[in-house]
Each structure stands twice: as structure tokens, then as C-alpha cells.
Amino acid sequence: MKLLSCIHLGWTLGLLGLPAQASPVQNTTAIASGNVRERTSLNKDWKFWHSKEIPDNVVYDLRPDANDSSLVVLKPWVLPSGNDYIADASAQYERPLTEPDIDLPYVENEFDDTDWEQVHLPHDWAIKGPFYTDEDPEIGSAMGRLPVQGVGWYRRKLDVSRKDKDDLVLLEIDGAMSYPIVWVNGHLVGGWPYGYNSFQLDITPYLKPGKGNQLAIRVENPAGDSSRWYPGAGIYRNVWLTKVNPIHVAHYGTKVTTKDISTRKATVDLEVQIENKADKTQKVEVVTEVFVHGSKHGRKVAQFPRQDISLQPESKGSVSVSTTIRDPRLWGPPPTQSPDLYVAVTSLYDARGRLLDIYKTKFGIRSVEYTPDNGLLVNGERVPIQGVNQHHDLGALGAAWNKRAARRQLEILQELGVNAIRTAHNPPTPELLELTDEMGFLVLDEIFDSWAQQKTESDFHLIFNDWSEPDLRSWLRRDRNHPSVIIWSYGNEIAEQNRDAVAAEIATYLQGIVKEEDTTRPTTASMNSAWPNSSFAGVVDLISLNYQGEGLRYGPAYAHLTGNRRDPQYDAFHAAHPEKLILGSEVAWSLSSRGSFSFPVTSYQSAPVNDTSGGNSTTLEISAYELYSADAGSAPDRVFSTQDQHPFVAGGFVWAGWDYIGEPYPYYDGARSAYSGIIDLAGFKKERFYQYQARWRPDFPMAHIVPHWTWPDRVGEVTPVHVFTSGDEAELFLNGVSQGRRKKEPLTYRIRWDDVVYEPGEVYVVAYKDGTEWATHTVRTAGAPAALRLSADREAIAADGEDLLFVTVEVVDAEGIVVPQADNLIHFEVSGPAEIVATDNGFQADFTAFPSHDRKAFNGLALAIVKGVDGRKGDIVVTASSQGVEKGEVVMKTV
Ligand SMILES: *[C@@H]1O[C@H](CO)[C@@H](O)[C@H](O)[C@H]1NC(C)=O
Ligand SMILES: *[C@@H]1O[C@H](CO)[C@@H](O)[C@H](O)[C@H]1NC(C)=O
Ligand SMILES: *[C@@H]1O[C@H](CO)[C@@H](O)[C@H](O)[C@H]1NC(C)=O
Ligand SMILES: *[C@@H]1O[C@H](CO)[C@@H](O)[C@H](O)[C@H]1NC(C)=O
Ligand SMILES: *[C@@H]1O[C@H](CO)[C@@H](O)[C@H](O)[C@H]1NC(C)=O
Predict the structure, then answer these.
(1) Among 6, 485, 486, 615, which is most exposed with the fewest C-beta within 10 angstroms?
(2) Predicted local distance difference test score (pLDDT) of residue 46
(3) How far apart are CA 406 and CA 409, in angstroms?
(4) Which UniProt key words apply to this protein (predicted)?
């Protein structure tokens, strides 16, 4: 009873960039009772301990790798955490009447954790390695050869001030890998097995006023295979503590949808669910106002009608209201549209006009049409899907969420011309969708990689029966207000897809749940082997094909392969489902190591990697002429050609945008990260970057020569030169001598000079568009390594202990030309209020642990990732040195 609501709102809205005088509350005399909603980060100052074996005799549930009847199964106490997301009340779970019969010292307030490691979240215990390098690794290549297995315990004290005693205290975890279970003051509160989903627990009943409250969180990862890629390990996403009045907007309690959209006006429908956890019936007034998000003036654009609702104790109720926004700024993907956002600010008042809660919902106004013959229309404009698949890891930082690292990934993708992301194959962290909303990416939001049938021994299939409904509903409610999300996917390459009856039954069940939660977006599940006539294809709202569109093991270069083979399938699916939009949810799967080239170069437009064609299973490098693919994949050229011959296809998501940890196909025996990215694990551009840029940014003048021109062993040998350009014609010169002016032929996406004979010097290309000069590119032969040249992605970062600098090292010769095959061992140092958190070079088979300050350059480049110290401002100097060359440094600062 101490804060005037206008002051309180001024503060709260300050977070939105709204000035205090723009208080949206009409009744400025209203008094807040206690605190309105307060959400704080709980990321700092945890104690952590990890064991590779099960150290505590408990397990979420018995599994193939933990099938010992002496283990105490905690599942009965965890299942009720999903109750809010189980529609049928009779199917919800009762908490057992007794506590689990265990003695767990780690959850006790008195337990002495002083010897445990001090960590800040988000935290991934496995990323520091070391890598398992042996022939029979404990954790295999598919999962990145990193020590994810075992049990991790996190402990932290919580301070509950007396003024909060009437509030509810809610713990929110954006994701923990995996099977997180939470204890407060020794009491098991609940948990959420699927490591990629977010969940909230009401910890109020277990708290006592004062400083001594003990929070303990246990996570466990199976010892066997539980994933087809690197999952990360630990509490790898943000943790929040939210305090609310017992009468409050429920978790994920708002649902905003928009309709009748034009540039003149749009209708916004809002549903607000309110929860009463107080012990008496309450009448609540619900007031929601709409502001332009991020506007300096806090411009209010609409107000929903006020609504009253009466709520019994321990109940929830909803109000539904509509309003019209005049001259709305629509949300849409750049470069032709702009991702404008609004924010709905919902305030709850009690019968005496006292403010109870303020809840903000960001949303956008956009229309999306999903047409079978003309692809995707966003606000009436055809937007071809120029998408990429992204796994959740952040390279050398592992799975531990970092907003700057994710933003950097998206920035480089945007430079490439990407306008869409598929969250392969799991819910992203909520902040990723905030970024895609702000930056204007379209998102295919995907939840499962397996249903009831396994892909790996200990994957989601173990918990499918218990958790598919709560996982689906909570994910849908969490993500439904994001304008960037345009498609829901409830499965990727599901093993059931060809078991017709089973596939139909499960797909229909999952689809039904999605439709109950959201009817404004279509559903899909990606098919890599289902036929057009399959029941599976019949259930989904839109057809999303993995690789099949271009054909599997299709064409002469793939003729010698055995395995699942398909002709290109777009026409067949289009004919079988003439009413459904078709897209490629995974296209390409082409493979390369940045800056590596091998000879001879295949004459095919697309060929499978093998030891005599593009690959080398000894060096573990794959040629970056960008003509080589996985057996079931295609080089980009073939994807583009297929798309151009099937204009009804809405576009596709390339497998993959960035290289990621795990799935090092085809070198499972030697490598630890993927070859399929357009961008390598360190964030360096492969040659393919320029090929996609040429297609996806046709108005951006660029030309790019492949390969580099430093081949001392190739003098006199044929060394093909290929050029990627957004122009339509180009002339190539070698040491001033024209090699011919050539046009890009129809259905080809590069200009090739396959007969160039290597001599050192300079290769130069002039590209033309419509007959006029458009862009040029020059590549010169480098001499011996002479120096290290450093550059940083930014000059200054925030001194908040989270912001990051990405420092690139180039090994250059005496004239400053990058030495393309240099592999100098580089030593990094930093001075000033900062630390080097990881280094990388983008090579898929480098087993140097990521935190190492010593790293070999790979094909001339290396990367250091530097983090500032929280609260300390000053200059940062990063130095790189290597024997026999001049050292380099770069100066930045934290502000
Ligand atoms: C545990 O082992 C028994 C006996 O081999 C087997 O029948 C059962 O399916 C296993 N349980 C799990 C969860 O793997
Ligand atoms: C404003 O709040 C006061 C104090 O609670 C209350 O008496 C009054 O009815 C409210 N006015 C409106 C317009 O809501
Ligand atoms: C579906 O199509 C495939 C391939 O053409 C065919 O083998 C199969 O018999 C068809 N199934 C049904 C149920 O028609
Ligand atoms: C490698 O692929 C090529 C086609 O690009 C094929 O002709 C050759 O037989 C393959 N080699 C092996 C060893 O499979
Ligand atoms: C692979 O690379 C190694 C080392 O450079 C070389 O000796 C070998 O000939 C290469 N293999 C093929 C098939 O090119």
C-alpha cells in the first residue's frame, strides 16, 4: 500500500521505453496493493556439481540406460506439473499423498555446497569438454562427442522479503537439459522432462519469509543416445522469478489475434485468462491498452473495452474483447516490409480500483495466406521462403543461451538474405522469438523430432505418452502471440510416417490439440519418406518435404548409391494435395569445410560426397566448390533449379544455416560438428554464403570467385574457377588475360571456367547485369604467413557480463593478403575487464576444447569470443600471437 500506481506504472513501462507521463492507466489515483508483477532474472550465483553416474539413487523414470529397480522413480511427483496443459480434467494427475521415500542431501538447506563450482546461468556443463576423441566414444559424434551424460545439481538461496508474503512466487525456467526437477526447502515441487520446453512452477507453498530459502534443481541426461545432435547439458536457458498478486493474469494468459487487416484498419481480438489464487471470490476489472512498441512517445493506439469478471477462489476465468487499430503498421519481413510491433498492456483492478497486475503482450499485425499455387503471401505480397534450419547451439558457446550470440547468427543470416527460420527440431528459447519478431524473420516453429517410435534409444519417445499433450499445449500458448511464427510443426521425419494407420492416428491426435489452441496458423510435420498418398500427408495442413522435393539419391551422380531413392516429389504431392501449400522444410544438405577445395572438381551440378569426389575421410575436409551433398541431399544449384521449375513451391529452408555441433555426416568416425551449414561453426562465411546471397539478394551487387588463388603445387594444372554473382554475365581475367565473358545459363546458378590453368598472381572478375557493369571481385596469390590481423564485430559492448565480442584473426602475408591454407597455432590473451570464453576456427574435426586460449587457424582464420566483466567498464585489448609471425591486437571497450 505504498506506491501510487502512476509511479509504479511509470517504472514498469520504462522497460518498454515509454515515459512516465504516458501512463496508460486512466485512474491515476488507484493504489497498488503490494507489488504488481515483478519479474527478475535468477541467473546469477548458483552452485553446481555434476556426476557422470547417477549419484543420488533417483531418476525421473527408468530408462534403457537406468533400468535398475533400486532407483527411486520421481515421475509421480513431476507429472502434476503438466496439469494446466491437460485439457481433460479427469486425465490430470494427483500429487501422491506421501513424499518420495528418499534421502537427498543435495536438496537440504543445511547441505554444504561451498566446494561446488560457482556458475551463472545459462550454463552448459558439457561444452568445455574435453571431446571424446577415442574410437568408441562414451558420447558419440552424432551428439558432439562432449560429456553431456550424467546428473547435474544446481543450488541457490532465495530471499523472500516480508512485504512479498501475500504474493505468489513463481519460478520460470526457459529450458533445462533435461528432466529438470525442482526442490524448495527440501520439498519436491515438480519438473518438466522435455529439455527444450519452458515451464513455470508455483513455489509459494514451500517458501518461508527470510533469506534462507533453498532452491535445488536436478537435471539428468541419459548415458545412451538421447539425441541426433548436440543437446547441451544443464540449465542452459534463462531462469526467472516472478512475483504476482494472487489475482493475476495466468501463465501465458493472453492470446492476441488479428483479422480484417488492411493498411487502413485491423481488428485485434484479445483473450485474457485471469487466475484467482486468493481465498475469496474476487471481482476484477480488466483494462487493456495498445501502444506502438519501442516508440519514444509511448503512442497509445487503441483501448479494449473494459471488462469485469468475478472469480471464485482457486479458479480461472477469461474475458474476450476486440478493438480496432486505425492505419496499423503491419509486421512483415524485410527488405520489402518492416517488422513493426505493438504491445498490449493489460491491467487488473479489484473492486476498489486497486491495481493488481500489469501484463504486457507484444504482438504484430500481419496477414498470411498459404496458397497452393502461389506460395506464401504476407500482407498480400508474395514472399518466397528463403529459409534456413537452425539448431539451438551457439557454436563454441554450446547450448548456453546468449542473446548477443544468437543475434549475431541472425544478423549474418540477414546479410545473406535469409527471411525465415525453422527451429530444428525443438522449441527455441523464448528470447529467440523476440529476436525474430524484432528482426522480421518468418518462423516455422517445430516441437518434436520423435513421437512414440524412437530414433535414438532415450529420446522423446520415452515420454511421448505422458508429455506430448502438456508439451504441445504449453509450447503453443507460449509462442502463439509472436507475429514471426507462421507455421506450427509437430514432427520432423517422424519414424511413424510410413506406418499408415499409426501415423494417421498420432498425427490426428496432435493436430487436434494444435487446433484447440490456435486456429490462425497451419500445421505441418516434415516428411522425408512418406508418399503423397500417405495418411500422414493427408492430415497435415501444408506439405513440408525434406529433400524429397529435389529427389532422394536422384540423378546420374547418385546412381551408384544404395538406399531410399525418390524422383523429385513436388509435382506428385501437388497433384495429390492440390489444396495445400508445399514447401521444402529441409532442402540442400550440401556439405563443405570453409576454405577447403579438392580436385578434380565434379562436372555434375550436384554430386554425393565420397573420397574421390569432394571428400577426404583422412583430412575430414569437404571441398567448398559447393557441388557436393549428402547421399540424400542436393547441392544448392539443383535446389534452385528445382524450385525455379516448380513456382508453386513456397520456397524452402536450407539444411542448414549455421554449422552446429553433432551430426558430422559423413565423418562420424572423425569429426564432431556438422558440414551442412552455409556459415561455419565460428561464424565465418563459406563460399556457399555468396551463392545464396547471389540468389536471395538479387538487387545487391556482388560477385565472388571460388577458389582462393594460392596453389603452389598446382602450377600448370587445370584449376576450375567458379563465380557466384547477382549479375547475369561475367568476364574472368587471370593475370590480366581474359578467360572469356560468359553468361549465366538458364537453370544454372554459377558461371564456370572449368579449364583455367593455374599460375600464381591475380584472378579478377567483372560481373554484368543487363549489359552494364555490376560488381567485381579480386583474389590474389598469398605469400608466407607474416602477421596476424585482428578485427572485432563491434567496438564496444555492455559491461553486463553477458554481452560478447567476436574477434576474428586472419593470418596474412607481408602484403596483408589472407594466407588461405594457414594453420598457425595462435595464442590469445586479453587485458582489461574481460575474459576469453571460447575460441574456434570452424573446422569440423578440431578437437581442441572450446575454452582453450590456444587454437590453430583453419584455412587462415580463427575466432575468439570475449565477454566483459559485469559492472566494470574500460578498454579491452585482445592479443593474438603465433610463432614466426608478427602478433596482432585489437582494442575495444565495455561501456
Ligand atoms: C528394463 O529391463 C527389463 C528387462 O530386460 C525390460 O523388460 C524393460 O523393458 C526395461 N525397462 C526399460 C524402461 O528400459
Ligand atoms: C478510481 O479509483 C478510486 C479509488 O480506488 C475509485 O473510488 C474510483 O471509482 C475510480 N474511478 C474510476 C473511473 O475507475
Ligand atoms: C502409395 O503410393 C506408393 C508409391 O506410388 C505405392 O507403392 C502404394 O501402394 C500407394 N499406397 C496406397 C495405399 O495406395
Ligand atoms: C563417388 O561419386 C561419383 C559420382 O560423383 C561416382 O562416380 C563414384 O563411383 C563414387 N565413388 C565411390 C568410391 O563411391
Ligand atoms: C586425403 O588427404 C590426404 C592428406 O592430404 C592425402 O594424402 C590423400 O591422398 C587424400 N585422399 C584422397 C582420396 O584424395
Answers:
(1) 6
(2) 98
(3) 5
(4) Glycosidase, Hydrolase, Signal
163 and 70, same domain (yes or no): yes
Residues of the chain below pLDDT 70 = 1-35, 164, 296-297
Is residue 782 in some structural domain? no
Decide: residue 10, CB within 10 A, 0-12 exposed, 13-18 middle, 19+ buried.
Answer: middle
Which residue puts its alpha carbon closest to atom 8 of ligand 3?
533
Cβ of 350 below 6 Å from ligand 2: no
Specify the residue for cell string 516448380.
646
pLDDT of residue 11: 29
CB 308 less than 6 A from any atom of ligand 2: no
What is the predicted pLDDT for the residue at 35?
Answer: 59
- Name the average pLDDT for the chain: 94
Which triple of cell numbers denotes residue 177? 537439459
Angle between helices 636-645 and 687-696 (to 10 degrees): 20
pLDDT value at position 297?
A: 63
Q: Measure 467 CA to ligand 1 centroid, in angstroms.
A: 20
Q: What is the CATH number of the domain that holds 387?
A: 3.20.20.80
Distance 28 CA to ligand 2 centre (A): 9
**What is the domain range of residue 889?**
787-894
499 and 562 co-located in one domain:
yes
Per-residue confidence (pLDDT) for residue 19, from 0 to 100: 33
Last-in-domain residue among 673, 689, 704: 704
Give the residue, by CA position, lying nearest to ligand 1 atom 1: 67
Angle between the N-to-C axes of helices 430-439 and 464-479, in degrees from 0 to 180, rounded to the nearest 10: 40
**Do 565 and 625 belong to one domain?**
yes
Residue 570 CB neighbour total at 10 angstroms: 22
What's residue 255's pLDDT?
A: 98
Supply the CATH number for residue 841's domain: 2.60.40.10
Q: Is 493 among the catalytic positions?
A: yes
Residues 204 and 116 in one domain: yes
The answer, yes or no, to whether any atom of ligand 5 lies below 6 A from the CB of 21, is no
Cα–Cα distance list, 120 to 117, 176, 405 (Å): 10, 14, 17
Does any domain span residue 630?
yes
Q: How distant is the alpha carbon of residue 79 from its chain centre?
A: 27
pLDDT for residue 296: 67
Centre of ligand 4 from the C-alpha of residue 612, in Å: 7
Within this chain, do residues 91 and 173 fall inside the same structural domain, yes or no?
yes
- Give the count of domains, the chain: 4
Question: Which residue among 598, 618, 620, 622 is best mutated to probe the pocket of ligand 5, counting the most ligand atoms within 8 A of its Cβ?
Answer: 618
> Ligand 4 within 6 A of 326 CB?
no
Pocket probe for ligand 5: among 593, 597, 611, 619, the residue whose CB has the most ligand atoms within 8 Å is 619
Output the nine-digit C-alpha cell for 852. 582453450
Query: How far, in Å, from the CA of 312 to the mean position of ligand 2?
Result: 23
Please say whether the beta carbons of 4 and 12 come within 8 A: no
Alpha helices in 628-709 (DSSP H): 636-645, 687-696
In this structure, are 232 and 352 located in the same domain? no
**CA 12/CA 213 separation, integer angstroms:** 27
- Pair (386, 358) in one structural domain: no
CA distance 480 to 493: 24
φ/ψ region of 415 (left if φ > 0, alpha if ψ in -120 to 50, else beta) reads alpha
Determine the distance separating the centroid of ligand 4 and the alpha carbon of 611, expressed in angstroms.
Answer: 8
Which positions ≥6 away from 366 have C-beta within 8 Å? 258, 261, 330, 331, 332, 378, 379, 483
One-character DSSP codes across 346-393 = EEEE-TT--EEEEEEEEE----EEEETTTEEEETTEE--EEEEEE-S-
730 domain residue, yes or no: no
Q: Whose Cα sits closest to atom 14 in ligand 5?
A: 616
Does residue 333 sit within a domain?
A: yes
Q: Assess whether 138 carries a catalytic annotation.
A: no
Q: Is 353 in the pocket of ligand 2 (CB under 6 A)?
A: yes
* Final residue before a domain boundary, out of 704, 729, 746: 704
DSSP-derived secondary structure for 129-173:
-----SSS-SS-GGGTSS---EEEEEEEEEEE-GGGTTSEEEEEE
